[in-house]
Design goal:
The complex is a heterodimer of chains A (174) and B (560). With 174 residues, chain A is of the alpha/beta class. Chain A has five helices and eight strands. In chain A, 22% of the residues lie in helices and 19% in strands. An eight-stranded mixed beta sheet of chain A has the order 2-1-8-7-6-5-4-3. Chain B folds into four domains: 6-109, Sulfite Reductase Hemoprotein, domain 2 (Alpha-Beta Complex); 134-290, 2-Layer Sandwich (Sulfite Reductase Hemoprotein, domain 1), CATH 3.30.413; 306-398, Sulfite Reductase Hemoprotein, domain 2; 413-559, 2-Layer Sandwich (Sulfite Reductase Hemoprotein, domain 1). Classes of the chains: A alpha/beta (174), B alpha+beta (560). Chain A: This is DUF934 domain-containing protein.
Chain lengths: 174, 560
Amino acid sequence: MPKIIKNGQLIDDDTRILILDESQAPEELTLAAGPVFVPFAVWQAHSGQLSGRADLGVWLDSHEDVAELVPDLDRIAAIALNFPKFTDGRAYSAAALLRTRYGFKGEIRAIGDVLRDQFFFMQRCGFDTIQPKAGKYSDAQLEEALASLKDFSTPYQAAVDQPEPLFRRAQRAA
Amino acid sequence: MYRYDPYDQKIVDERVAQFRDQTRRYLAGELTDEEFRPLRLQNGLYIQRHAPMLRVAVPYGLLSSTQVRKMAHIARTYDKGYAHITTRQNVQFNWPELKLVPEILAELATVEMHAIQTSGACIRNITSDPFAGVAGDEQIDPRPWGEILRQWSTFHPEFAFLPRKFKIAINGAKEDRAVIQCHDIGLELKRDAAGEIGFRVLVGGGMGRTPVIGAEISAFVPWQHIITYCEAILRVYNRHGRRDNLYKARIKILVKALGIDEFRRQVEEEWVFGKNGPNTLTEAEVARVAGHFTTPAYETLPADDAGYLSQHAANPAFAAWTRRNVLAHKVPGYAVVVVSLKDPSRAPGDVTDAQLDLVADWADAYSFGEIRATHEQNLVLADVKQSELFALWEKARAANLATPTFGLLTDMICCPGGDFCSLANAKSIPIANAIQARFDDLDYLYDIGDIELNISGCMNSCGHHHVGHIGVLGVDKNGEEWYQVSLGGSQGNHTSIGKVIGRSFAAAEMPDVVSKIINVYLAQRQDGERFIETVRRTGLDPFKLGVYGEAAVKERKQNA
């Protein structure tokens, strides 16, 4: 089974990420059983019937606004935020907003072009789950990549993982 | 100046370890070129024409003699014996070997230096007034605020992959010496009616392909809130800045598209959530950082040193140097010295390892062990006693560091250009050197007076050509190098963007073109008028006439 990172550990996970092709209308889709992240458009079309499914999450692309999910947040177990390219940094703000402004306590998963040298930033912005693309890393490489979560031990600024900046956390000598 | 505590040191040490591992994985083929690119850029490492180029951060331009000696050591050991001062007050090494860069960073970390965020689509090195703390017109010292914002922006997890680079500058004096109107965020320190410190905040300025003067987003943000306010600006930009087109990705394009009022509304709406939150600055933190920028132990001295005055009277070459390169200091008996890096035999801003060692020695002997780098690509010794100026000058002159041209035509800003930079369309250094060779008569330069000539080898505008009184921009025309000339740009409180005067020129024409421009100025100027004032008064027409001739101007007008 594929491995992902959850709360700093490797775990097995076979959640599918449903990607619609152009011919599929979200309204007409029938979902197979099993853990899955559905696109925001599918959630919008079927939220009545999908809500409450514990094995179902919603994924947003980087241009989609997390604010639109706010009315549904208490019915969603997990949200995945897509990095279409690892240089597209919008999902960092989206994750931070979900955690701090909208109080989302469920899983926030990084999907898409997810690389180990960004793990540290993802974790700081509130991602608790990290799923690199299938085949990007071997299990051994992913194990090794856990080290990147600990690149910096004492960051300066406040973020989701550390809500106080260093100048409030530590007594720094003048 | 700011000294690292164990927290600062650990972050820099951990960065060295991180980049060492990233470089190892890149060289082992585990990271692709594309994946490694932003990692190395956020560590100031470019892959250039001949070799990688490493840009080392000099936060707000301040260096200790120990740091300058380390730069000399790096230039000697890992490079070809010289370094380059950039227009963001940073230091560049042009020839390091990629596999040795982690070693260089480890060496830099031992003297509290790094290359963090000197490039890449993130918050860059924060720049400021090179005369901070010593200028007579200073209202509030910008350096503690530069350090506070440096720490906040270092590895900010939300803003490491912005749509594009992001530059912040701070000024705390009456005259702006940090080009704050041409920055993504420009901060002007000021006091409100109650005497409280805060910031006037400009946003969306910049040079580059689309030069824009920043717009005022807030007339006054109290100091406690400056981090949360900047975070609100950055978050709006990170979420809504364009990512589809590299040339339209800077915040200035977003601000233009929304209009400053709508952009301000969005920022204020965002700020509601961060304001008064944990990132609100505390008096204790500001006091802690400000405590590093204390006034040095100045002696009580007469305003005019008798020995200095007699040396000045007796030695015309010394007098010439003091006239240009020695500036007033706020403390009686002291002076600010510009150590010129504009010797015509070198590229503007270049400095050798031996010269760096000497400057470090002079800093220890004459200036409390500190050196500043300026965005105009010179070094500054900010606290020299008048009585020691002559001794310093003799040493500086012997080391070719006393070119007495500060603020004159040949004290130009010049990017590394096509000789080094892979982004460049054209070379800049040979143009600079050719103009320096043409204007080698000091009396003539003094007669021309204050003038700023800035040269960029491409649209990215590292050479600040948009704000040069005379701006030169290298352009590519069918694979050939040409140079476009603009006039009327300026930095400072009256920042303006220069206007192109007409068709561009071949490299060989450039000294003549500058001569013609200067001749028009000398013919047109009225009593005591500086070059830029004449250009503002007359407009471009007399200059176009002087450069292109009557027939060409007429023809151009007919075709227009």
